[in-house]
Design goal:
heterodimer, A: 204 residues, alpha+beta, 5-stranded antiparallel sheet, 34% strand, B: 249 residues, 10 strands, globular, Proteasome_beta2 (chain A), Proteasome subunit beta (chain A)
Chain lengths: 204, 249
Amino acid sequence: MECVFGLVGDGFALVAADSSAVNSILVHKSNEDKIMILDSHKLLGASGEAGDRVQFTEYIQKNVHLYEFRNGIPLSTAAAANFTRGELAQALRKSPYSVNILLAGYDKDIGPSLYYIDYIATLHKVDKGAFGYGSFFSLSMMDRHYHSGMSLKEAVDLVDKCIVEIRTRLVVSPPNFVIKIVDKDGAREYAWRETIKDAEVPTA
Amino acid sequence: MARYDRAITVFSPDGHLFQVEYALEAVRKGNAAVGVRGTDVIVLGVEKKSTPKLQDSRSVRKIVSLDTHIALACAGLKADARVLINRARIECQSHRLTVEDPVTVEYITRYIAGLQQKYTQSGGVRPFGLSALIIGFDPYSGAPALYQTDPSGTFSAWKANATGRNSNSMREFLEKNYKETSGQETVKLAIRALLEVVESGGKNIEIAVMTKEQGLRQLEEAEIDAIVAEIEAEKAAAEAAKKAPSKDS
């Protein structure tokens, strides 16, 4: 029941993901951060097999860093997306990763961009995208309300509308979501949308 | 002697590995490099031999970053350096991936030295012809560190060291003039050591400063020229002070 979705606005890109870590009927935690900050201006929101998700995204992150050290400049968003897709494709007919990815980035010359990369190494450059059961609801909401060049307020409102739909219409909907943003000032956490807060641990 | 210097894997009767010693000769022919450890900065300096007019000097970086908190300068065969630097950069990221922690300066020095040693004990290969000066801040204690490796694969930590051309003169100067410094004083000490053996001027020196907060920063030519001017002024003042008392006698 993992949900990841994202969209491109005016000079920025947003990625939202649920934050539940579930194993069968047990909820391990409700504040798992599934949106990795790849480098100063890239975000990687991932959903899928828990082990694969962490292993694969960390592997991509370290390789992106290595490129930057080797070449003195960071990878472009398109290059990072193609690299990620290439790694998925290589592993696909050997030992595939079960990870779906939305890669958002900001390049100085191009502006914001969003890439849809699914577990069988499909790569699409998109304005809006979503994965998981939640995608049925978030994609419909975005189809209705999205337009290119949305302001940050409009985009966050749309994200909140999607979250409301997921919460009301998905049978076992995740309680909490994290929203991260990337723009000319870099990639960073924007907000959490929580309905369940972990209980305060009493101090001894 | 001719029979014992071909293959790296053959000791000579008096216990030398000639190939390793010849590699050290290659280092001695390389451009001068100096490293000085301060209390809050570490400075690396290298001699820049005159760049050919048509060459884009920005593509020849002699002081490189291995990670956000580690940098390296070397003297010797630059092509060998490229290979070692690439392996070290991969190891820095690999370490972060497997143990979720950045490398310590000692770890990555040990790794580079280990690589250099491997190539002194294999058939059909030759040692890396370079000595590396590795600087960085310990990610946990925040302490600054300077290490040196050589073609034989030995490494050790230093407060200040030099390698490459005329390294002995630079090391003598450092031994005479080293004291605990911080910030700009450390930069000046490194430049003064380099100026002992290198023609004066920002065109012939490349300096990089590593701080804990900002990582590695390469100094601009104008900045280096300014510090060189300061140093020359101090030298001139010292000379004048020495001459003045003898005039009154």
